[in-house]
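Appendix B, example 12.
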Amino acid sequence: MINRILFFIVVVVSLVSCSPDLPDDVAAAYKKLPAKVDFNLDVKPILSDRCFSCHGPDNEKQKAGLRLDLEAAAYGELPESPGKWAIVPGSLAKSEFFKRIISTDPKYLMPQPQSHLTLSAKEKAILIRWIEDGAEYKPHWAFIKPGKPDIPSVKNTSLVKNPIDNFILERLEKQQLTLSPEADKETLLRRLSLDLTGLPPTIADIDAFLLDKSPKAYEKQVDRLMASAHYGEKMAVDWLDVARFADSHGYTVDRLRDMSPWRDWVIKAFN
């Protein structure tokens, strides 16, 4: 029995000793990370902003023959450094990617200083946790079949009024933030009106809301505003902007064209 315990201790110590040391700031950020990081939410934005300019899909700008946007390429042997790999899932010690992002040597560090791109301690910690967890790549979120997530547990259950609150409170707890006090009814109605119609509430609207003492007073205002023709106008604004909508001339060299029927259709569709 004693021999088994000693063997277990030796194995644990050897595993810990094999784990590369992290800079103090990165180690501190690492401790604050959630149990698991998500590729699309946490990792890909960092790679896209800091790495893809030199190691992305653009062959003309690609350096060292390394692509980090593709799983197979990231896992493969480095073209210009035989016997080395950028990312070895589960192994920091074998991953050149890890060694480069924590290096203090300006000739070895990635991103390179001349790129004027840097990684924060938290961003390095996220990438390190990702590699340790297996460096899983995922397709674009739009191509992943949506699934119903488990409702997260939260510390302050007294603030939960519906399951959506669990997700909000969980994120606030991760960010070490707390909810602000609930706004007064007049402020709530103003926020709601501007969000749903783009227009402030009238004095009559405010008075009616203040006088309504029913438990569903707020829900009644939501229904009233969504029934307004102005609701569709407000919702259509962002949609039309994304589509680069223009009533007449879209660009300086475009010919005159009346696009108002489509604009009206979008508004009616939301309503």
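Residues 37 and 130 are 6 Å apart (CA to CA). Confidence is low (pLDDT under 50) at residues 10-17.
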